[in-house]
Specification:
Length: 264
């Protein structure tokens, strides 16, 4: 099934992408199908052009540019040369001349636009929490855009909520990793929020979290091509998820683990 360039712009408009917005975009663009006569890069340019047209000169686009394969390896991370492993669209954005990438060897974000430097420089060495890109995006009233996939399947923002709430099944783990700066290699400490090894993990794929979210807030969805695009307000999601975790700290799981307390 084909879709058109005009439909792309219309869908983002109907979802509510507007001038000055900060938008976090992730998903699977291939799930939408293709624009007839367009190459993959043409399609990416079509989506980028539509989004930039709507958010304007004061808007900012952010994408995940994770490289989890480097974790527990001796492969150096280069801010400029290490390719994103989070899909072809994110690598397309990372390669843009004015793109700004967060310095994190495993779980970086890359921003393009007015607030790119604010969001993705001088960050914490943790993926979540104060001064992380997620924290900065929330301060910009950002919107989460999921392309071709249900947002519930790929909402890494949920882990920021877990970090804020101090969920008992995760801890901050330190990784000393080689970082490449020009011709120099330096070993530096970075942090991930990881599960305790002993936990009986039975995830419900954010079903409870999104059911609760939709009781108070709107998850917008518009069809495009073979699939759809979803959008929600990131601050509303954090508000809803942290409130749910006040009454159910294990909301990310199907049920509370039986083997508590956890050990490292």
């Amino acid at each position: 099934m084909f879709y058109t360039q005009e439909e792309v712009l219309k869908v983002y408009q109907e979802l509510g992408v507007a001038s000055g917005d900060t938008i976090y975009v992730t998903g699977n663009f291939g799930a939408l199908g293709i624009i007839k006569g367009y190459s993959k890069e043409d399609i990416f340019n079509c989506h980028l052009s539509a989004l930039q047209q709507l958010i304007g000169e004061t808007g900012t686009l952010v994408v995940p540019t994770h490289t989890f394969s480097l974790c527990n390896s001796d492969t150096p991370f280069s801010l400029t040369d290490t390719e994103s492993e989070t899909g072809a669209f994110t690598e397309f954005i990372r390669r843009k001349k004015d793109a700004v990438r967060q310095l994190h060897p495993f779980s970086s974000s890359t921003a393009l636009g007015y607030k790119a430097n604010y969001i993705c420089t001088n960050n914490s060495k943790h993926v979540y929490g104060k001064h992380s890109p997620f924290d900065r995006m929330l301060s910009c009233s950002a919107k989460f855009v999921s392309v071709g996939m249900p947002a519930s399947k790929i909402v890494s923002l949920v882990h920021h909520a877990e970090f804020i709430m101090g969920v008992p099944y995760r801890y901050s783990k330190e990784f000393i990793h080689p970082m490449k700066y020009g011709n120099d290699i330096r070993y530096e400490a970075f942090y991930l929020s990881v599960l305790y090894r002993e936990i009986d993990v039975d995830r419900d794929k954010n079903e409870k979290i999104f059911n609760y979210f939709k009781e108070s807030y709107e998850l917008k969805c518009e069809p495009l091509g073979l699939s759809h695009i979803e959008l929600f307000d990131m601050n509303e999601f954090i508000d809803s998820t942290t409130r749910l975790m006040c009454s159910d700290i294990y909301a990310w799981l199907k049920e509370a683990p039986t083997n508590r307390p956890f050990q490292t």
